[in-house]
Design a protein that fits this description.
alpha/beta, binds zinc ion, five-stranded mixed beta sheet, 11 helices, binds 5'-O-[(R)-(carboxyoxy)(hydroxy)phosphoryl]adenosine
């Protein structure tokens, strides 16, 4: 069985064809995976502009889907289902993918499978490495999310903790913006951090000790918070700009910028991994995973491996191409959902704040 996946939740128009294999340990194989990035369009504005994003998806989607079919060596008669990201994301952007997927599924006479964007990110782990030993704890860490999920059975996700304010990727993007480094900030801060001293500035690590009134069903102690760290970076940068007399948006010396990036990155990575391994211990996990755009971070990748090696716990991380938004992960998650009996009818609508259940 082949499935066409479509992803348009944010600033990437993506389509992919994934095929089911006969090997239960490695259930999916990527036939094609096309991503048209809008980064150059949004860079000018320092972040994603929702209306520009939706309009660009409309321009790109036909070409991206045609190319994904071509690369997979099939025509519109060659796929057996269409999977699409239903949410969460920018509603105008999601609507482009959902409407397009509906029309394709209707005209090809195949089932339509709605997929949660984060279920897609989690599936990127299986796509890359094969099935995870369960129970597993997965950290999904991107520009919009920082959440810990417990996976007891394939395709089921139980929320164990999440950020109360900024997502980790968002904190990276905001710190880069305030240092005047450009967009998206994650890869730039990651690169500059490698030349800095990670102990130069003692930025604070936030530790939440109480339940969140907005989520009383969660213990709260495994939640994240990155807005205090971001404010602390802002205060430090403001003080240094004043001391050096470079103006409120002035550039700091390269060496200082590298130290700020390294010190900030140390706190983010340690916070993420402290919680991930605590959660893994608490539920007796047989493996851990990290998915989402921030899983591309070099320090996070290196440190998760070294911490897990000491615990003899297998680690699942996607390749760099599968860590940021793509449609292969949506197609794979769609296949899993299809096999579990989930399809949608033509009333399917985009849902900007869809919950992962
Ligand atoms: O998953 P993704 O492509 O889109 C969302 O669903 O949000 O994640 C994008 C986020 C951005 O915030 C970007 O700055 C961050 O992932 N990111 C990184 C790195 N590469 C991308 N953050 C830290 N280090 C990186 N190397
Ligand atoms: Zn994403």
């Amino acid at each position: 069985m082949k499935i066409l996946g479509i992803e348009t939740s944010c600033d990437e128009t993506a389509a992919a064809v994934v095929e089911e294999t006969a090997d239960p340990a490695r259930p999916w194989q990527i036939r094609s995976n096309i991503v048209a990035s809008q980064i150059d369009i949004h860079r000018e504005w320092g972040g994603v502009v929702p209306e520009l994003s939706a309009r660009q998806h409309v321009r790109d989607i036909c070409g991206v889907v045609e190319r994904a079919l071509q690369d997979a060596g099939i025509t519109h008669a060659g796929y057996d289902a269409v999977a699409v990201t239903q949410g969460p994301g920018l509603v105008g952007s999601l609507l482009v993918g959902v409407s397009f997927a509906k029309s394709l599924a209707w005209s090809a006479g195949v089932p339509l499978v709605p997929v949660h964007h984060l279920a897609g990110h989690i599936e990127s782990l299986v796509l890359q490495n094969g099935e995870m030993p369960l129970p597993a704890v997965v950290l999904v860490v991107s520009g919009g999310h920082t959440s810990l999920y417990r996976v007891d059975a394939p395709g089921t996700y139980e929320l164990m903790g999440r950020t109360r304010d900024d997502a980790a990727g968002e904190a990276y993007d905001k710190v880069a913006k305030l240092l005047g480094l450009g967009y998206p900030g994650g890869p730039i801060v990651d690169r500059l951090a490698s030349g800095g001293d990670d102990g130069a500035i003692p930025f604070p690590k936030t530790r939440l000790t109480h339940a969140d009134r907005n989520a009383p069903h969660l213990p709260g102690t495994r939640d994240f918070s990155f807005s205090g760290l971001k404010t602390s970076v802002l205060r430090h940068v403001t003080r240094r700009r004043e001391a050096l007399g470079v103006g409120s948006n002035g550039a700091l010396p390269q060496r200082e910028v590298a130290d700020i990036c390294a010190s900030f990155q140390r706190v983010v990575v340690e916070t993420l991994l402290d919680r991930l391994f605590e959660a893994a211990r608490a539920c007796g996990a047989n493996s851990v995973g990290i998915a989402g755009g921030v899983s591309a971070n070099s320090r996070l990748r290196a440190e998760v491996e070294s911490r897990a090696a000491g615990r003899d716990l297998p680690v699942f991380i996607p390749s760099l191409a599968l860590s940021t938004d793509n449609a292969a992960m949506i197609a794979a998650a769609g296949l899993r959902r299809f096999r579990a009996g989930h399809t949608a009818d033509w009333r399917l609508n985009a849902d900007a704040s869809l919950a992962l259940t």
